[in-house]
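In full, the data:

***
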Amino acid sequence: MTATPPPVSRLVAAAALLPIIVAGCAGSRQAASDGEMTWSAAELAIEQAMSRPDQAHAFWTATVVDLNTGRTIYDRGADRNMIPASNTKLYTTAAALEVLGPDFRFETRVVADGEVTNDTLRGNLIVVGSGDPSISGRFRDGDELAIFREWGESLKALGIRHIEGDIIGDDNLFDDQALGYGWSWDDEVYWYSAEMSALTFNDNCIDVTVVGGAVSGEP
C-alpha cells in the first residue's frame, strides 16, 4: 500500500510546461494599449501540450499568474487535488531563494567544550550541523573524506593534535521526523529517499562496492 500525501489544492504550472510557456510567451508578447501583454499564444501552446494523443490518460492542472498584478491569466483544473511529486522541488527552490537569498551559505561549526593544554583538547569536539547537504564528495571530485581532512588541518593550525573527549555530531537543528510526511515506504530503498538530518554525510547513504576475484570462480 502506498501512503498518500496531503491534498494539494493548487498546482501552478508543471515543470514540463515551463519551456512551452516561455516559448509561447516569446512569440506572443505584444504590448496592448494598456501596457499588458497578450497571452493567447501561450494559452494555445499549453492547451496543445495537454491535448497531445500521448497524454490521453494523463491528468493536467495549470495556473499562470501575472506576478505584477496577481491576476490569473490561465487556469485549467487548478482546484483539483493532485500529487505533485518532484514538481514540488520548484516551489521548495523558489521559497528558499525568496527567504534565504541566492548568496546563502550553510555553516557547519566545529566547536570544543574544553580547554586546550599544549596540543591536547581536554574535552569534546562537537560538529554542529545546519542542514548542509554538501558534506560529501559531490563537490570535491568524488572524495567523500576531503572535508574531514580540511577540518583536521584547521584543528592542527589551532594547535590541537589530540582529543581526550569524544567527537560528537549535533543534529538538533532539525526535529526527529527523519522522513517527509506522506513519503512512500517503497521509496526508502533508493538513495534519493534517504532520511533527513541537520548533519548529513554522503547524502546519508552508504556506498557498497563489490569487486570480483582476479580469477573466475574466486570470491
About this structure: Strands lie at 62-65, 72-76, 109-112, 115-117, 120-122, 125-128, 162-163, 167-170. Residues 30 and 37 are 6 Å apart (CA to CA). The mean pLDDT is 80.
